[in-house]
Amino acid sequence: MICDNIAVNAAGHLTFAGYDTVELAEKYGTPLLLMDEERIRQNVRTYKQAMADFFPAGSVPEFASKAFSCKQIYRIMAQEGIDIDVVSSGELYTALAAGFPAENCFFHGNNKTDADLRFAMDSGVGYIVVDSFWELDALDEIAADKGITQKILLRITPGIDPHTNQKINTGSVDSKFGVTLENGQAEVFVREALAKQHLQLCGYHCHVGSQVFDSEVFCDAARIMLQFVAEMQVQYNYLPTMLNLGGGFGVRYLEKQPTVDYRARIKEVADCVREVCAALSIPMPRIMMEPGRSMVADAGMTLYTVGGVKEITGYKNYVSVDGGMTDNPRYALYEAPYTLMLASRADAPVDYTASVVGRCCESGDVIQPNVRLPRPERGDILAVLTTGAYNYSMSSNYNRVPRPPVVMLNAEGDYLAVKRETVEDICRLDV
Ligand code: LLP
Fold first, then answer.
1. Omega before 376 cis (within 30°)?
2. How far is CA 430 from the centre of its chain?
3. pLDDT in tens, 365-419
4. Are 302 and 31 in contact (CB under 8 A)?
5. Probe target for ligand 1 pocket from 40, 62, 66, with the most ligand atoms within 8 Å of CB
6. How far is Cα 91 from Cα 81, in angstroms, rounded to an integer?
7. pTM of the model
8. Which residues does a 6 A CB cutoff place in the pocket of ligand 1?
9. pLDDT at position 161, please?
10. Is 361 a catalytic residue?
11. Residue nearest to ligand 1 atom 8, measured at CA
């Protein structure tokens, strides 16, 4: 199996976190997003422990909550004692509504509005990750107006392409995020930040990409950023207390993809940071990392009910399910790969090829093309694996299709974390 929280029981049903998925589908209906709470906690603890063991004191992971945002996930992260990254007033509001401590929130985003900045500061947000010159000016003015000093990090674009692993790649310098290092703008950014009366510069932030399988990309980012730290020390006598290397470690969506040993990869990044700091004679800053996907992806599974099978003789087979791009837009957007299984007959021979499609009025509403499955029948339960990250958070109401509920599974039982949306909910804002 692609992940050790998935198995098949004596009834031939797929199990997830030890639960019979067919029974859960009967109990809660479909489409249904299941989340394995124990797996989330294990993923978080792996990061937290590795960062505590290998990085300087005070280095903690931040959960990039864009990957999966709802009140219960923020409660879990608060209980586990890690920080979070939020990228909108909406994510921040949800975290605070769940009781997540504001001082442990890092607020990102390339275009925070004045209203966002005011809300964040009124809430007592820990750090604002400043993305641009105009944000620096706006933030300082608002902080002055409020009579506070706001802690900030500066988002710097180190110019690394995570997929080719080439440094100073124009593609990644050409980004809407952060301020470019290569052309000297980052240096001006630091000078301006240090001159602001109402902002306290605590360090730098960078993020190189997503679904990255090795540590080399993070080591490259660390090298470039630490070199910058050393240069800024010489130039402005400024040393950051914190360096945030961003998120991005990959997860296994397909059997043929590797399993990432996060602890081992983090140790490699730490070794690199230590070496580079020693070579540059600078103290090691607290290192932060911001994983989103790798904390929640393998904790998720989506269940659908099969509506029917359309066989275009001599051409292709389509299996239609009762969800689609509204609860999982990732194939439509990125041609993202997924592993699918027939949950209600998981022990049946896999002898059929079909494209699994959703119910939206759009040909692009494909969950996954050309999957191998037992031939499904109307009423079968179909599972899409590894849907914990960027599925619920990117869901929509296209065609006024309600969002599925989120059911958490732990050792004590199964419980609703997010209720099923209704058509009345969808009409709520219509005048
Ligand atoms: N930090 C920053 C500043 C980010 O922009 C991101 C992701 C993360 C952390 C978390 O990265 P992760 O560990 O999850 O790879 N919607 C896309 C993914 C977009 C990622 C955007 N930024 C998807 O469904 O694959």
1. no
2. 31
3. 999 999 999 999 999 999 999 999 999 999 999 999 999 999 999 999 999 999 9
4. yes
5. 66
6. 18
7. 0.97
8. 64, 67, 85, 108, 207, 210, 246-248, 290-294, 330, 390
9. 77
10. yes
11. 247
